[in-house]
Design a protein that fits this description.
By secondary structure, this protein is α/β, with parallel strands linked by helices. It has one domain: TIM Barrel. 46% of the residues lie in helices and 13% in strands. It contains 15 helices and 10 strands. Strand 8, helix 13 and strand 9 form a beta-alpha-beta unit.
């Protein structure tokens, strides 16, 4: 059974030879092919080569386009800082207020250089690996998107105190989300991964979710004719899993934080949505191989009767300092757990 078949069948709740293994290894490909991150996040051919190496080394069942939310910020005019051991982040926002954001020109999906890098990386990855594994396109949801151009503080201020501007902002961000999502699908993505950044327990209130965020996401996701996977973004989205499960086209949700109770997560998402659970990706380098193996076996034992479950990692990328043996320990646990 191929990884692609394994991934698709699990989304359908059907029998597979083993659980899908879906760690976040976007950046790790650079380590496997021996290139610097400043090149890896600018040259699509290198990204695709890195992802092919990830498949060969770790037998993953799905890949995604660059986990590079800051790149979307750059497309809107924010300035990036590149690092030796982590993905680029934003060093200067394009604007400082919601009023300035409204005046901001939105990037051309066809010609913007950063978006072109993401599209070409996805296209080349799908061409090299798409017959064997599922390949997804990752993008910020229309509620998260403004924070990449004006910063989190400025965006929260607008959400709380400048509500008269929100309709105009969301009209534009939904339009961009839909166009960008369709562009990623045209490049070979078979599913989309949407950020869950703002919809977590440390950022928003229940009132904001019900009256502001949920209606926007519902409108945006309904316009995408493709499966959508919700990525946790590094914060726990457990309190809002029941909100996400009711959104159009959402087929899978991350609840991979070790702090999240998988039984509670399953109760919230229902019995027929796929749940991704496992270990915290950014701290995988801090654990020993045996500890990782034992933790994964415990998770798989807990989910042994759950046909809609994949083993993965939460948060951003697994660090470059993570020994390959740590990732292989997760794969070993999945392989030994056997068929479902």
């Amino acid at each position: 059974m191929t990884g692609k078949e394994r991934f698709i069948l699990t989304l359908q709740g059907k029998a597979v030879d083993r659980r899908p293994f879906v760690p976040i290894l976007c950046m790790y490909g650079a380590k496997l092919i021996g290139v610097t991150l400043d090149r890896y996040y600018r040259e699509p051919a290198l990204y695709a080569a890195g992802q092919a190496a990830v498949v060969e080394r770790f037998s993953v069942d799905a890949l995604i386009s660059p986990l590079f939310y800051s790149g979307e910020g750059e497309a809107f005019g924010s300035k990036l800082r590149f690092h030796e051991f982590m993905p680029p982040n934003i060093k200067k926002m394009a604007v400082s207020s919601a009023k300035d954001y409204i005046k901001l020109g939105f990037p051309d999906i066809e010609t913007n250089p950063t978006l072109a890098y993401m599209r070409q990386s996805l296209r080349m990855t799908a061409k090299r690996c798409g017959n064997d594994v599922s390949v997804g396109g990752i993008l910020s949801n229309p509620v998260d998107l403004p924070s990449l151009a004006m910063g989190i503080d400025g965006w929260i201020d607008a959400l709380l105190f400048q509500k008269e501007l929100l309709n105009e902002i969301f009209e534009r961000t939904v339009e961009f989300f839909v166009s960008w999502g369709r562009a990623l699908l045209s490049e070979g993505a078979t599913f989309l991964v949407s950020s869950g950044g703002f919809l977590n327990s440390t950022t928003v209130t229940q009132e904001m979710v019900e009256n502001t965020i949920s209606p926007v996401l519902k409108k945006a996701y309904a316009a995408i004719n493709a499966p959508i996977v919700i990525h946790d973004g590094g914060g726990s989205i457990l309190p809002f899993l029941d909100v996400y499960k009711g959104l159009p086209n959402v087929v899978a949700l991350y609840s991979a934080s070790p702090k999240d109770n998988l039984q509670e997560a399953r109760r919230l998402v229902g019995c027929d949505n796929t749940l991704v659970g496992g270990l915290d990706g950014p701290t995988l380098d801090k654990l020993g191989r045996e500890d990782i193996y034992n933790r994964c076996r415990a998770i798989l034992e807990d989910r042994k009767d759950d046909r809609f479950f994949m083993l993965g990692t939460s948060g951003p990328d697994i660090p470059l300092s993570t020994p390959p043996e740590n990732i292989l320990a997760m794969l070993q646990a999945v392989t030994e757990a056997g068929c479902m």
